[in-house]
Amino acid sequence: MTPEPQIELSPRISDEVRKTTCYMCACRCGINVHLKEGRVTYIEGNRDHPVNRGVLCAKGAAGLKQVTSPARLRAPLRRVGPRGSGEFEEIGWDEALETAVSWLKPLRETAPEKLAFFTGRDQSQSLTGWWAEQFGTPNFAAHGGFCSVNMAAAGIYTLGGSFWEFGSPDWEHARVMLLFGVAEDHDSNPIKLGLAKLKARGAKIIGVNPVRSGYNAIADEWVGITPGTDGLFILSLVRELLRAGRIDLDYLARFTNAPVLLDCDPKSAERGLFLRDEEGRPLVIDRRTGKPAPWDGEGVEPDLRGRIRRAGVTHHAVMFELAERYLDPGYAPEKVAERCGISPDQIRHVAAELARAAFDDPPALPRRWTDFRGKTHETMPGRAVAVHAMRGISAHANGFQTARALHLLQALLGAVETPGSFRFKPPYPKPARAHSKPHHRSRPGKPLDGPPLGYPQGPEDLALKDDGSPARIDKAFTWENPLSAHGLMQMVISNAHAGDPYRIDTLFLYMANMAWNSSMNTRGTIEMLTDTDETGAYRIPHIIYSDAYSSEMVAYADLILPDTTYLERHDCISLLDRPISEPDAAADAIRWPVIEPDRDVRAFQTVLLDLGARLGLPGMVDGAGAPKYADYADYITNHERQPGIGPLAGWRTGPQGIAHGRGGPNEAQIESYIGNGGFFTAEIPADAAYYKPWNRAYWDWAVSLGLVDGPRPDLIQLWCEPLRRFQLAAEGHGPRQPPDHLRGRIRTTHEPLPVWHAPLSDAFEDPAAYPVHAITQRPMAMYHSWGSQNAWLRQIHGVNPLYLPTHWWEKLGLAEGDWVRVTSSHGEITVPAAHMAALNRDTVWTWNAIGKRKGTWALDPKAPEATKGFLLNHLIHELLPERGDGHRWANADAVTGQAAWFDLRVRLEKSAAPEESQPVFEEIRSTVGDAR
Amino acid sequence: MTALPDRTDRKLGLVIDLDTCVGCHACVVACKGWNDQGYGAPLSDQEPYGADPSGTFLNRVHSYEIKPATGGAQHVHFPKSCLHCEDAPCVPVCPTGASYKRAEDGIVLVNEDACIGCGLCAWACPYGARELDLAAGVMKKCTLCVDRIYNEALPEEDREPACVRTCPANARHFGDLGDPDSAVSQLVAERGGIDLMPEQGAKPVNKYLPPRPRDAWEGEADVLAPYLALVAEEPQGFLGWLDRTLGKI
Amino acid sequence: MQPARSLILFTTLSGLGFGLLVWLGVDPTPPTGWVALVFFALAFLLALGGLAASSRHLHRPERALRAFTQWRTSWLSREAWAAALALAVMGLHGLLLVLDIVLLPLGWLGALLSLATVTTTAMIYASLRTVPRWHHWSTPALFLGLALTGGALLSGRVPVASGLLLVIGALQLWVWWDGDRRFARSGTTLATATGLGEAGTPRALFPPHTGDNYLLHEMVHVVGRRHAMKLRVIALLLMVLVPLGMLQLPMPHVFGLLALVSHVAGVLVSRWLFFAEAEHVVGLYYGRR
Lengths: 932, 249, 289
Ligand SMILES: Nc1nc2c(c(=O)[nH]1)N[C@H]1C(S)=C(S)[C@@H](COP(=O)(O)OP(=O)(O)OC[C@H]3O[C@@H](n4cnc5c(=O)[nH]c(N)nc54)[C@H](O)[C@@H]3O)O[C@H]1N2
Ligand SMILES: Nc1nc2c(c(=O)[nH]1)N[C@H]1C(S)=C(S)[C@@H](COP(=O)(O)OP(=O)(O)OC[C@H]3O[C@@H](n4cnc5c(=O)[nH]c(N)nc54)[C@H](O)[C@@H]3O)O[C@H]1N2
Ligand code: SF4
Ligand code: SF4
Ligand code: SF4
Ligand code: SF4
Ligand code: SF4
Ligand SMILES: [Mo]
Description:
The complex is a heterotrimer.
Chain A: E1 16-21, E2 30-36, E3 39-45, H1 58-61, H2 63-67, E4 77-79, E5 88-90, H3 93-110, E6 115-119, H4 125-135, E7 140-141, H5 149-158, E8 167-169, E9 176-180, H6 188-201, E10 204-208, H7 215-218, E11 221-223, H8 230-243, H9 249-255, E12 283-286, E13 291-294, E14 307-310, E15 313-316, H10 318-326, H11 333-340, H12 344-359, E16 364-365, E17 369-370, E18 376-377, E19 380-381, E20 385-389, H13 391-394, H14 399-412, E21 422-424, H15 489-498, E22 506-510, H16 522-530, E23 542-546, E24 559-560, E25 571-573, E26 585-591, H17 604-614, H18 632-638, E27 652-654, E28 657-659, H19 669-675, E29 679-683, H20 696-705, H21 721-730, H22 740-749, E30 772-777, H23 793-796, E31 802-804, H24 806-811, E32 819-823, E33 828-835, E34 843-847, H25 864-867, E35 905-911
Parallel strand pairs in A: 6-7, 6-22, 9-10, 9-20, 10-11, 22-23, 23-24, 30-34, 31-33
Antiparallel strand pairs in A: 1-2, 2-3, 4-5, 4-24, 8-21, 12-13, 14-15, 16-19, 17-18, 25-26, 26-29, 27-28, 30-35, 32-33, 32-35
Chain B: E1 12-17, H1 26-36, E2 45-46, E3 54-55, E4 59-67, E5 74-81, E6 99-101, E7 108-110, H2 120-124, E8 130-132, E9 139-141, H3 146-149, H4 162-166, E10 172-176, H5 183-191, E11 207-209, H6 217-224, H7 235-248
Parallel strand pairs in B: 1-11
Antiparallel strand pairs in B: 1-10, 2-3, 4-5, 6-7, 8-9
Chain C: H1 5-26, H2 33-55, H3 75-98, H4 104-126, H5 138-154, H6 158-186, H7 190-194, E1 201-204, H8 214-219, H9 228-248, H10 252-276
């Protein structure tokens, strides 16, 4: 026998490790990038990083292939063929920038709103939003309107913070975790790390989802709910808990507005608003005196039973309304079960499980703390029920109220910011009132009067012109969707095309594949982008787009500003924006060029600042009109939003040298970040780490770090006053009145207490004609459209069958390899089918964004993504079908305007297998040549 | 070299927890990334941007649906790489001696310099753990990251397989399954770890922890019933209860 | 599996070649001179052609000599040795015969080695527990039977060939019948493969990769199996029945040749089925076999 071969057991991995931040998705994990001879050879997770603690997902580990993708754009492009042809010529940067300036400068000087600047997967919204503000256009938003504004807005209006990536379950102490409609989410790795912790502790995970895959597959219990009915299920839980008295009375009294007194005078124009004192502070009854007192008065002990008689009218606390509303037998498990597609027993069981986890032997941390009323508590009592939810709830037209219902459930259990429940990540908590309001007044040559996006408190804050018409191109903050806090990116192209509410000149898009997977009604969007007016000119005259890759959208722009990849640029993941904080620490991070681009591309943020300087935008030029910032890195270091507050909180300069949080710019700041692995964290002191919204120590800490200027404790808004203000307007009160056709809808959808109403589309599409719900899920190993250019990832997900439940599989007599025709009220697709038993009875689904247009992403036009892959988007329309009432209603939440992707109803037929998935789109000429 | 060692000093291997694996494929790509630049030939891809892409991976994540006798269907994600079998059938079939099992730790490796690419070892493996690299023409398989676990150029904490290090759901554990006191052995004992295809006689070292029982609530409904004992049915009754309860405080 | 042309050709041709060598080796009155040259050249051509075809199956053929090293454990290595020794011994025997020197024991040794070669080839497959259809004594039996039959036909041994044809016909039928049951009998199922049987009946859901890979291409190839029944009939006809009929006809030279051609065509079909119908247990993981 020959001896075992000698193998090298200790090879050196690389010459150098550079630590930066991943951007294969928005989770923003820390990565160690290994380089050999200047080339990236291996990427692994950074163990010290607060987000991922060393782990990395499939996309992150495949980043190597993203940076070498043949689909990378190589130089600025000017369109030479018709839109959509893919015919471009390469131009230099000066020419590109001058072209942009030649389009934009006249707009700024005459009508800044004629620029619509919308950004997709943007991680620099504090820069892009500020840029739009300085340009003077109200027409700015990122993609939140079609993403998850329901979740964000419901959270902020109710709790002062939301799930999304702005809060997190207390993985250390939770005993039951309720997970609603999550396939992957932005917090990809933290959620997985957390679920593993729960499992290790023997905590119970309950997955509420029509599809049992991913997180729901490992859930100990699965609630296979029918899409769009979560609100009913949740309110049924609420009813069961109320009936059993399994609610946290002390918590409700102290930390929610359940004890706040309502104006109950039926004749009052303020009915349903809070009773207030002279200083405008909402009132409660103080248990110590039995008298009204301001909610936040020193030592006040709010009484849940509070009522007061004034001028012959009894005004009572929100708690009365709550009991009245939710003890309604209409929410009984037996009543809702059928509609929700689950059994009444399971509803009751989940309610009992929550009660047990919350109230049986609750955890209590031995940490002394003082609340905002000055009361000192010896411990931090816990409620070990953690909840997390995402688009499964928010991507429905009833998503805002459903998310509110979920927050109500949490609050009743005392399960917000208590040990074992849900915790905010700084800069949250930040209640709606602490956010800016939307600004929309544009004036020639002037900046906007303030940030374009925000959180309206009532009709007076809507973005309406004096004539009542929408001020924004996307009609955000109008009566159709008053609380559209993230704008409505999904409406921009169709409104701009229709010239409704007005024509625009230039559509400036960044990082959003609007000609494909991020649009509803993809074919229609493509037609709108290419449609011409009587003169033969495009109806949307100019389109500027920044992408890093040869995506579908590139083909539809006139001017392409090619971006770097994430390893080739500076980025700033800022506390002013969407930071990477954890419940125990504020944290922000950077990206930095760990490799140099090998093409004629520039970081978009640098280009934006350059454009701003060329346009002479305030803040981007100095007194002499010269550019203020050399590039984005310079901006990150030196820009100050207010004195002492810049994009990055770490390593600023203070009176005694380095200071964190508040402080002047520091030329070595980015170097310090790099030295620290690319991120900065500021720990929250233990006594400030829970009960944050009401915890004095927390506010002291937040003020010292510069997160806020002063403490701003607030109650959980079970009763949401801004909603009531819109309702009052719909009832005819107040100077600003909705159009009549919207009154009824505002009244029913803007209930100040969470309600459930059927998804809007149910009223427009005959459920009998379209009996099946069709939804998508994100594959964990793919990020939207980008993954398909990745040589490794596309081998994992190169095609996406439509998964059918057993009921429909058998009903249609399908066998492996069969195809189905899927028809909605809007369109039809024919696609490969597959069988999945662990699925809601009437739901079909597929992976999102696998289908690709031929000729894009540097893939072979015969690539499976283009021949078998498909999008559900062809079936979804941004407007609901005609109903003969003279209006096309938006397929969106009536409160926030969130696109209702998951309200899609379809019918299914078996189909002969076509050559390719239908519909087939014409091939686009590759903008990067034949890279194969 | 093709004879299996009579015994190995240690039995290094993986324990994979089917209860927590969410099927994210992180381990698949981490493995590809590590081994693309590590032990032996890089892991090639054929037609990476073409109509029929394929490539060599040493770790793959399957997924299975389970239909229990009663109750709803369940779903299990199932990662699979070489199980470093004690009676590895892939080793003795190798005509060149390229395939071997290390006596010191039981890791099964391919000496790529000796491999003729006949594919027989892959045929002998019941688990589909070997993939022939079409560019290099040699057999590739999981090395248990032998170039990490002893790597003195790596910090101590990183001396574990790339797939284990990256798994966000903590579903992968690495250790000595020959030592009953090791953490992995304890885990296997505690959770009733199992062998795949025991009837094939390969005696895999890697163990799988079966998913914990799911949807067990139907039996539990009674236990939990008291938690929903009624205090009130009507709003009035509820407010009365509220009054009484708060009165007590 | 994917029926690789190189393997089908190799096993068929070399089987024929070594089969012929066996008969040449045991012939008490072996041909000598030119006749011997023709017979031996033919046998060598077939055997070596088969080996050459098989080396096409190697991805690193330049290292093929290494395959001689592991005869202690590897049937493939043993095959290399057996083939080399058989060819050497029979080469010597043939050479001597051409020179009119008859050394019968040398022929017996060569015949033995030739039989060993066919056996080792078959054992490569039969030893694979992972392919229950192959993992059976009948695999070497059939390989040997076919080699001997082909050899007998080639060397014009009509009565022997007829008898052998009957035997292998019966054996082949039974191998198919029994082979269809072996996977089930092996006890390996998706439940044992995943260990998930306790909880219920598992079924493959999401594939681990939508792209192709070596395993799928090599072991889980299912195309063609649909026609298995038809092909079995064709194989049996060509391999056994037609030659058997022809052999009973006059003009043994013409019909003997036709019988041989038919038989070899039949063996090729049967060998194609041998590979195409092989179901590797790894297919279970992919929800296929
Ligand atoms: N059917 C269906 N459709 C959906 C959804 C769904 O669930 N179902 N989800 C919706 C949701 S929530 C969202 S957020 C959208 C997402 O949709 P998009 O925001 O359009 O997401 P991507 O497809 O990733 O497109 C982003 C673009 O950014 C480009 N890009 C990538 N990296 C860079 C870079 O570094 N710089 C620049 N400048 N560009 C870059 C990519 O090439 C791509 O063209 O999809 C929506 N569409
Ligand atoms: N790997 C990866 N990660 C990503 C992304 C990506 O493309 N890939 N995209 C990022 C983006 S932009 C976003 S917005 C987030 C979104 O993250 P998720 O919210 O996880 O997004 P989806 O994949 O759309 O998942 C929606 C889930 O809701 C379920 N669902 C649908 N309708 C209902 C319903 O009515 N009720 C309930 N309870 N569930 C329902 C679906 O089955 C699905 O599991 O992910 C981010 N993270
Ligand atoms: S979750 Fe994955 S892709 Fe997203 S940032 Fe983290 S490692 Fe990168
Ligand atoms: S899993 Fe396969 S390759 Fe690995 S040792 Fe076992 S038989 Fe060999
Ligand atoms: S492919 Fe290589 S390792 Fe496998 S049996 Fe053949 S020579 Fe040995
Ligand atoms: S141990 Fe190493 S080689 Fe084996 S599967 Fe894990 S990462 Fe791949
Ligand atoms: S990384 Fe972990 S959770 Fe993800 S597929 Fe692999 S084993 Fe499962
Ligand atoms: Mo999103």
